Amino acid sequence: MIALTLDRIAEITQTAIGGSACPDTVVDGPVVIDSRQAAPGALFVALKGERVDGHDFAAQAIDSGAAAVLVSRPVEAPHLLVDGGDDEVVAALGRLARYVAEELGDTRHGQGRATQIIGVTGSSGKTTTKDLIAQVLCTMGTTVAPAGSFNNEIGHPLTVLRADANTRHLVLEVAARGVEHIAHLCRIAPPRIGVVLNVGTAHMGEFGDRDAIAKAKGELVEALPPGGQHRGEGGVAVLNSDDPRVREMASRTAARVVFYGTGEEAAVRATEVTLEDTGAPSFTLHLGGRTARVRLALVGVHQVHNALATAAVADELGMEIEQIADALGTASPVSRWRMEVTEHNGVTFVNDAYNANPESMRAALTTLGALARDRRAVAVLAHMAELGADGEAEHVRIGELAAQTGVQHLIVVGEEAAGIAAGAEGAADGGDWQGESIRVPDAEAAAAALRERMRSGDVVIVKGSRVAALERVIDLITKEDAQ
Known about the structure:
- The chain is α/β, with parallel strands linked by helices.
- The chain contains 17 helices and 22 strands.
- The strands form 4 sheets. Strands 9-10-8-11-12-13-14-15-16 form a 9-stranded mixed sheet. Strands 17-18-22-19-20-21 form a 6-stranded mixed sheet, sandwiched between helices.
- Strand 20 (407-413), helix 15 and strand 21 form a beta-alpha-beta unit.
- The longest helix has 19 residues, at 86-104.
- It is globular.
């Protein structure tokens, strides 16, 4: 974070200095919500959770070198006290992040150039694309991006506060669980470039329909400043032209619009898409009248669209097409449990267990089919949460797709995922599938069922909503073998 005195932070956050805090004490370390991460010059934000209360760890944070603690009640430590409860602590954190974002956007800081703020949203692929953009842009200068899916009202400002005067790019993932969520995050850190990947069915149960999801995702492009005439000027909306609801967002922004996709109308386009034996895609990138061949290290044909969005951002920020292609080719998976490919005792495991929705499930099963080719394909699948009234039908369709893609053993985890088994079993009853469907209650039972069936040469994918924690399936098998 940029260095600020406690009295200045108190003014920004609308808090009162208390305890033994000195107004001229400088905060120039990290802003953290875990006292174990406190370091000299840090600001520890005391949040009250379901199981622990950060206020109880104030002294520990100070002992580790923290300059002060942001609190909702007085503690025996140098502190900044909000006027209100825990929600006001989060609001104060947001106010501090907004100030820092505005300061970093002022060309008086750093080396005479403003920090470029990029926001990324979409129903699926946000985290992978954010990671791709950060890896590509870091070749041009210091880049800050959130770890994993740090994309809500707490994680978002914490990421902003990791930036300092040397930060050239700030890449932010913005998520929505309701209308105005993305707008709120964009007020904390106003982006110059906004990327919208897709409008799918994730959180359908909360939004009601895709049009409502599109309305929420489009808040990102509405937050962008007016666009300039040339590259590097004004706001830029990077939109997936292959998704009709995303394409329509062009009418909702004053920013300059850059379309990416596979159609002729896309300014940033992919042609000649192929899939390697490893599951990694290659394609020809078209950009500004020039072409370059891109070979990704990431797994899945769906990564092509993520790479195109990244290329559009990199082009806007001044990278040449050859640099973009090289950087995309060297980018690797960063966030855990997202199409992680590992080998164990001759079995290829694809760990995509972070979360699931119909679009990402279809991408995962397509990838499994491409990877397996002439090998046996095994899928361990749990339910897709928050789909609302369409949930049962969506699960059935995923089971049907598993059968169509040639899955030999389908292990379905939990009662909520029963529709997946039903879909595959319906295909078997009709004579269109010769595979096996197994229903198990939890990850432990799934690991046992998988161990009984898998053999060297198999390709196994695990995927489900976060609550299922299907990464444990792979952990159980590999740890048991290590004993």
